[in-house]
User: What shape does this take?
Amino acid sequence: TIQMLALMIDKTGDVRALQFAGFGVMIMGLYYGTVTHRNKNRGGNISYKEALGCGTLISVFASATYGLFLFIYYQFINPETVGFMLMKERIKLQTQATYTPAEIEQSVESLKIIYNPYMLGAMSLIAYTFLGFVFTLGISALTKNEK
Assistant: This one.
């Protein structure tokens, strides 16, 4: 979503600042979800293991929702975005003097496999679940409250 927002704002595709903002939102959501679960469902007490499980479960559902959104967006709402990303990569490779035209074509063909809506959705599910788990390792240490 962050990358798509950056592409809509300006067609540069430089999304580093927005990605960090997205990570911040993800961390806040994981923290809020874990604390809410601890306070409302666990009577204010939660072990590290339970907090880790809660945060990971939140990550799985959020990642699945995001992956589905990516698939729908790239498949039905704005399929020309994939073409734009491929064109941008082609131009970037052409500006570097180290690639031959055949190598550029081979790279673009490989990127077509990765940039297909099914792959983008599946990769986001895996990547954001893992990233959420990593964030949850630290968040669980902050939110645990054992008797």
Observations:
- The helical segments are 2-9, 16-41, 48-77, 80-95, 101-114, 117-143.
